[in-house]
Amino acid sequence: PQLHFNRDSVMLLVLLFLSLTSALDPTSNNALYQCGVRRRIGVQLIERGWVAELGQWPWHAALFHVSSNGSSSYACGGTLLDQRHVLTSAHCVTTKRRKNIVPIRGSRLMIHLGQYDLREITGVQLRNVSEVHIHEEYSTNRNDIAVLVLSSDVEYSDFVIPICLDNRVDPDLTKLVGQRGSVAGWGLTENQTVAQLLRTAQMPVVSHVECVQADPTLFGRYLDRGMFCAGERNGTSVCNGDSGGGFYISEGDRWVLRGVVSFSGVDETRQCDTAQYAGFANVHNYLGWIKDVTGSRGGTDDKLDIPRRRSEIECEKYKELAGKRGNGICLNSRQPHNVALIYENSWGVCSGALISDEFILTACSCMKRMKPVSARIGQFVTIKIAKTLCHPQHEDFVNDVALIKLESKVEFAASVIPACLANDWTENLYDTLLLTGFKEDYRVYEDVPGFGKRPKITELVESVDNLIITEAECRNRTEAMGRTDRITDSQLCVYSPGHEILHAYDSNGLAGGALQTYNSRTCIYSILGICADSYTAQSVTIYSRIARFLDWIEPIVWAVDDPTESEDEDGTPPEYEGNELSLGSSTEDTCTYKFDPNQLTPTGPIRKNTVVVDTSEFKDISIAEFRKLFEELRLNLSAVKSV
Fold first, then answer.
1. Please, which pLDDT band fits residue 268 given cuts at 50, 70 and 90?
2. Dist. CA 264–CA 243, nearest whole Å
3. How many Å apart are CA 80 and CA 415, to the nearest integer?
4. What is the per-residue pLDDT for 608?
5. pLDDT computed for residue 241 by the predictor
6. Which pLDDT score is estimated for 464?
7. What percent of the chain has pLDDT over 90?
8. pLDDT of residue 226
9. Distance between CA atoms of 372 and 399, rounded to whole angstroms?
10. Which of 49, 134, 274, 631 could form a disulfide with 237, with the two C-beta atoms 3.0–4.6 Å apart?
């Protein structure tokens, strides 16, 4: 007899099959869920602190503190990033020991996922915490962010879904002002009692100015460039117990994590003031750090991967060189990348920064009158200069960056280690901004091989109390000195309050010097800017913003991974031009393919005897990786007829 199926019975069989396969392999469920996309249909947005709906915020986590007797108590919120990581506030997972801030042991922490009612754990996924990562520059309400590593993977469901991290959001917080986001938590209610059911509220982002004016004592002290402010001042706010939870913004059909609840004001009873604004850690500023800690490509949505730049990959190698002793002290000396540029038959010195074993980053203005002939790296290494390259669009103090190639490669040591280059995602990680450079001491002369007697180049001068200021504030400070040009997106304006640091340099010593941050965890410096112009009377310095010049720097500094790989198998050298990397002609007929960077599937026009790959979305591809890709293509093309 024949079997007949109608549409409903076919669908029933499909659902039955999916249920059976999911039961056999629970991890297969994970493929059915996308970050930031809720599966509970009909959930309404609820304002003014009402009870949330079941499944409304499937990425919201509950953080419990576990006592020595095994009992646990609710402490903070958190946000699920992927199957193994939860983001929360650093103050939720730290304690003080002998006046030092230290992480709470993972064994004293527990994460609940899919929780709605604090009194009920049926269906809730409970996970121990195996690792606690606190931002290395966390201090009271600054860099208040932490990543928790779970003891085992969670299983995605309608009630447990990760949030999206989006590297494409505009980093300019002024454009976020007025936008409404959502928060959730089991914090204290307006009656100062702990909420048993998950509650939620909507609130707008407000400007720094409005926030500080509302409470100058609180926000004037703690609200820095790594944070933003939000709230209604009408009772709709976060409270004790909401810390660590997320600030979610809707982007069409998905939700993105934009902030982490950090702090709010208190009223006269020392309880949280729900009529006051709240401070949130700006997640966008920490995407690079989150990626480093989680080992992921910046979130849970493959389409939102943070591209790994070539300079980032090289930076990993430098971290291995820096290292730490067993006592936690960095092995490298202070500023092991700083360079003094020396001119022939002329006094004066410019600064620069070593960024690879044969390239120095400096300012083009250092070559305006004459070109330097050698570079002093550290205290004992001096190498002649082979070539200087100014940015092709350099004009006066605009695009004022340059590369110097050395005649011989540098041997790395504790006193000679390159610096990393900050990009859009890493330049805002750390509060401490270091301003460095060299100067000549005209009271002391020394013999320099090949140069005779000249003023001694003194030890490095360093300033740590520096602030990046807005274009308007910068203009107010520099107009009196005759500067009328606006600060562009490719520049940073730095103010050094209360310091006469700029007067410690001669007219050249500060030029080309690096504005940098220091990572005490990896012992590595990252360069944010190169000094282009300074106004000593106003303690203001203009820097070229390095993140905006990486597309020019990287192909020059790291053009070829390995000299042995500089030629293709048929002897034709690879050619690099713009974002297109091509290999020479093959002896066989092959097709030209251009790749969709996300899908890596062949598309586009066809041509004989060459393969071209558009690398615009993965700039860090190496010759070795390209060759492997090329060989895979050759196999795939074997069945394609030439045209």
1. low
2. 9
3. 41
4. 35
5. 60
6. 63
7. 24
8. 77
9. 19
10. 274
Q: How far apart are the first and last CA of the chain?
A: 52
Integer Cα distance of 590 and 278 in angstroms: 61
Phi, psi of 59 (to 5 degrees): -95, -5
Query: By the 8 A CB rule, do 149 and 129 touch?
Result: yes
Token duo for residue 95: 């304690």
Between CA 543 and CA 557 the distance in angstroms is 21
The C-alpha angle with vertex 292 and arms to 290 and 298, in degrees rounded to 5, equals: 55
- Strands laid side by side in the 612-614 sheet: 575-577, 580-582, 612-614
Cβ within 8 Å of residue 318, ≥6 positions away:
417, 418, 419, 420, 524
- At position 82, the amino acid (one-letter code) is D
pLDDT tens, residue by residue, 14-73? 333 333 344 444 444 677 788 988 765 443 333 345 677 888 899 999 999 999 888 899
* Phi/psi at 375 (5° precision): -130, 130
pLDDT value of residue 563? 35
At 326-342, the pLDDT tens digits run 555 676 666 788 888 88
The 10 Å CB-count burial string (b at 16+, else e) for 586-597 is beeebbbbebee
Beta strand segments in 195-348, E: 199-206, 227-230, 246-251, 254-264, 278-282, 338-342
Sign of CA dihedral 376, 380, 384, 388: negative
What does residue 626 show for φ and ψ, rounded to 5 degrees?
Answer: -65, -45
State the average pLDDT for the chain: 73
Cα–Cα distance for residue pair 418/428, rounded to 1 Å = 20
User: Which residues make Cβ contacts (< 8 Å) with residue 340, sequence separation at least 6?
Assistant: 349, 350, 351, 352, 375, 376, 438, 457
CB 179 within 8 A of CB 162: no
pLDDT of residue 349: 74
Cβ pair 562, 582 in contact under 8 A: no
Distance CA 617, CA 597 (A): 6
Neighbouring residues of 97: CB distance < 8 A, sequence distance ≥ 6: none
Cβ atoms < 10 Å from Cβ of 475: 16
Is the Cβ–Cβ distance between 536 and 467 less than 8 Å? no
pTM equals 0.52
Could you give the angle at the alpha carbon of 429 between the alpha carbons of 424 and 431, nearest 5°? 125
Rounded to whole angstroms, the Cα distance separating 480 from 541 reads: 14
* 174-193 average pLDDT score: 76
Provide the pLDDT confidence category of residue 145 given band limits of 50, 70 and 90. Answer: very high
Q: Are 284 and 258 in contact (CB under 8 A)?
A: yes
Residue 40 to residue 541: CA distance in whole angstroms: 53
Residue pair 129/113 in contact (Cβ under 8 Å)? The answer is no
Using CA atoms, how far apart are residues 627 and 356, in angstroms rounded to an integer? 24
Instruction: Calculate Rg over the CA atoms of the chain.
Output: 28
At 376 the three-state DSSP class reads strand
Closest listed residue to residue 487, CA positions, set 506, 472, 465, 509: 472
| CA–CA separation, 244 and 87 (whole Å) | 7
Q: What sign results for the dihedral spanned by CA atoms 45, 48, 52, 58?
A: positive
- Determine phi and psi for 219, rounding to 5 degrees: -80, -30
By CB atoms closer than 10 A (0-12, 13-18, 19+), residue 400 is: buried
CA dihedral 625, 629, 634, 639 (to 10 degrees): 170
| Location of structure tokens 């699920």 | 80
